[in-house]
Amino acid sequence: MDRNVNKIIEDSDLEKNYVFIYSVISYDNRDLEAVPSVWLNENKTICYWPPKSSKNITTLIKNCAKPNEDWNSYSCSLIKQYGSYVDAKRKVAKLVDSCSSSSSQEFGKGHRRKKISSRVMSSENSELIYVSPIVETEETNSDASIMNINNVDTNKKIDRMITTVDVLLKEVASLKVDIRENNKLIENFRNASTTEDHFCEVSEKCNLKFPIENLSEFNNMNKDLHENEDLKKEFSYKMKLLSGGKSDDFVKRMLDRCFSKEFATKLAWTSAKGNIPIGDSKIVIYLYRM
Length: 290
Fold this sequence. Notes:
It contains ten helices and six strands.
């Protein structure tokens, strides 16, 4: 019997302590809000609010979560307390409607909201997106300095990006040149494949041989290029095939192909110092004509 009486007393105290678990408050910026009563200090003049990085603020409100040390504090005024979140939200909605129609006798202009928020009209089960109360602050010198530092850092990053883009563009331009040269070489091989049979016959007749290794082969080549039209065609064909296209050092590269390294040491453009002259040879003349 005594145990039951004690339980009734304990339940009564518990209900008394937690009957007003939600509070309707007004912030300094005149915004109205329904929050758990545990979010207020003892004097009901400060409301603790989760940081901006917090998620599911609606869940925190419905569960009456206790404030953490990293929560922000805002000045407020207590309007009324309720036993459920639904009742507290209904009161906020009623106050908003009353203030907007200028017919409220309970609250004057001091509690009117600057902007009516539709979130107070949402149902209890809706997932709401809450925004921290706005506190007006003046920009300090330190804030201005931080902004200047951020601007400088941003400009440096942009400069680095521009430099990187310039380098990439140069690389792309170089690649395009290489691609064009490769395309020319590929085109030469394609053309060669279409006339392969013809030049095989020409080669059998002319017996064109590279590189030239001695003076006798050099003289014979000059003579044949002067007299044999088929040899001229094959010579031109092979030089184009090996070159991959015209370039500034085309003649030099082709001469390297025509003569062996040992025989090339005995050659010169003129006969100076006893060298074998190639300046007026048919090989050089036809290379320049290509």
